Amino acid sequence: MVAIDRESLASLGPWPWPRDRIAAILDRLAEAAPAAIATDILFEAPDRAAPAVLARRLADALPPDESAALRLRAARLPDHDSTLAISLAAAPVALGFLLAPEPTPPPASPGGFAVLGSPAALTPLAAPGAAIALPALVAAAAGHGAASLEGGRVRAVPLVVRVGDELRPGLVLEALRLALGGSSPLLDAAGPAIRLPQVVLPLDEGLSIRLHPGAPLPTVSAAALLAGEVPSAAIQGHIVLLGGTAPELGALREAGFAPLVPGIRLQAEALAQAMTLWLPRRPAWLDSAEIAAAAALSLLGAAAGAVLPPLALAGFAVAALFAVPVGVLALLSATMLLADPLLPLAALLAPAAIAALAAFIATRASRARLVARFAQSLPPALVARIAREPGLVRIGGEARRMSFVFTDIAGFTTLVERSGPAALIGMLDAYIAGAAEIIARHGGTLDKVVGDALHVMFGAPLDQPGHERHAVACGIALAEYGQDFARRHAAEGFGITRVGIATGVAIVGDVGGGRVLDYTAHGDAVNLAARLEQANKIFGTTVLLDGETAAAQSGEGFRCLGRLAARGRSAAVDVYAPWDAPQEARTAWDEGLAALLAEDADAARAAFTRVAALLPEDAPTLFQLDRLNRGFSSISVDQRGG
Fold first, then answer.
1. CB atoms within 10 A of CB 105
2. Are residues 290 and 271 in the same domain?
3. Are 301 and 437 contained in the same domain?
4. Does one domain contain both 246 and 112?
5. Domain shared by 118 and 200, yes or no
6. From edge to edge, which strands make up the β-sheet containing 125-127?
7. HSE-up of 569 (CA within 13 Å, CB side)?
């Protein structure tokens, strides 16, 4: 594209330009030997800026005795239209004409245009007449094609138009004809198709190219071309389209792919598609084919809706949403047939949607009955699981790897003794309500509330990837919430919340029968979480977790406190606690643990002393120093004492 853009108008002057400037552009292009040149500029009237025209207009205003001499001189002055005609004759140029509502004789067709068969069924862009360039310019040009575009949003560019009762080529077809040697195009009305040397362009009855823009088209400014800044190699052998792109020229149109597109670019996009044979078309018979396909697909959709369960039906619908558009795209790629996916898709999915709606209504009613029955006795996650499977009333035992969080309020016995019943229940209600929100937010199931203790499960009854991380995050949040609650109720003697967290395989399922149904877990990890909660009193911590839980955490926010010989367990377990400390303290702590592991009391005491110097109030450090002072030098701590 050679664009008459804003840069060109700023450099060479406002539009309209004198036609000797257009001639200079054509001459510069001709020097580079293009395959063809096409322009949508309409040279309908004589150039008013030509010296000869200006002189004749001045002579018309003078008295007869003075005008005769001026008319003589005018005949010898430059005539820009003649200059342009000479430039047109020197290059393979196709001029554009526009369709017009006033009846006129059909425009000239320098290259000829032949029709094979009856064009009665064809529906090209049509008008009673045409606005054409000056006859001398049309006679000088090698091609003459319609540059008109459809009204409204432009989605197609015509290859052939009808002027009155005659068919004429569009500007794109004329440019392509000149580039291929200039032979007359043949319209095969039965196809329909346009036949040119070495190429056949299959079309639909509209005889236009449906726009589907590809890569950006190479464009140069007319000013840059006249300034000699465009190398000949960029033009040689190419088809060049010359036209206006500046908004001041008023040639911008709304297209299917952009809101404001210059008309010459739309012509260029269509020409690029013709050269690559990317010609989507929609023959008249395709409507009937789509209706037949929709009828067949509706039967398939009805059968699927009748026999498939809801989940499979949903998969069928999703597959159809992908398969039908992909099939339409595959048809377009293989045959250039532009099918509409909406009618077949609607015919396929409507029965499936009706069946899915019926299943949804039935499932929702069943779920509501189950929720009403079990909501008061089961955790919400379990109720949701049973609601998804209406036939499930009792869940049998299953082995699952789970995480457990146990909490307890420090000094609760004293609180009970000091508080009245109403005040105690009010505080507990508020405390448990806040804790339950935290548990739900982290995806836990509140298994039991035993007095002031909360038993929480992660990883059941539903699968919960990363339940170890959720459990620890929940435990830390519960401890922080407990500290804040204790601070707000310090006057009543409400204590902090201690938390124990453990992970392991447990047996989980219903316990009870008849009117009593309790979904709970049993296993070593359950007991260990309870023991770890109690072990916080030993280490002076608020949150303790076992090694299996700690191994699933990311980052360095935890420290090993040693090994705990818990009550009821034959083997000691590594215990960890959240810790946010400087690296120097972490290094000293690790050295202290290593010394305990080697039962080197002096080295352990020196390392923990360095931690205490950095963190004077760190309870686990003070605990280890106290043990060392009492003669204990082992890394293991017996929960039963020692």
1. 11
2. no
3. no
4. yes
5. yes
6. 125-127, 160-163, 166-169
7. 23
Domain count of the fold of the chain: 4
- Structure confidence by residue, pLDDT tens digits, 12-31: 999 989 999 999 999 999 99
Residue pair 129/162 in contact (Cβ under 8 Å)? The answer is no
pTM of the model: 0.54
pLDDT at 28: 95
- Evaluate whether 521 touches 507 at the Cβ level (below 8 Å): yes
The span from the CA of 323 to the CA of 202, in Å, is 27
Helices (H), 160-205: 171-179
- Same domain, residue pair 27 and 126: yes
173 found inside a domain: yes
133: how many CB neighbours lie within 10 A of its CB? 25
Per-residue pLDDT tens over the stretch 82-134 = 999 999 999 999 999 999 999 999 999 998 889 999 999 999 999 999 999 99
User: What's the one-letter identity of residue 241?
Assistant: L
DSSP label at residue 165: T
Q: pLDDT tens-digit profile of 232-254?
A: 999 999 999 999 999 988 888 99
What is the pLDDT, as a whole number, of residue 339?
Answer: 75
What is the span of the domain harbouring residue 595? 581-642
Give the residue from 515, 406, 485 showing the smallest Cα distance to 453.
Answer: 406
Nearest to 564 by CA among 584, 586, 580, 541: 541
Rounded (5°) CA angle 446-498-425: 60
Q: What is the C-alpha separation between 472 and 443, in angstroms, rounded?
A: 12
Residue 312 contacts by C-beta under 8 Å, 6 or more apart in sequence? none
pLDDT single digits (tens) 457-489:
998 877 889 999 999 999 999 999 999 999 998
The C-alpha angle with vertex 445 and arms to 443 and 447, in degrees rounded to 5, equals 165
Specify the pairing of strand 543-546 against strand 497-511: parallel
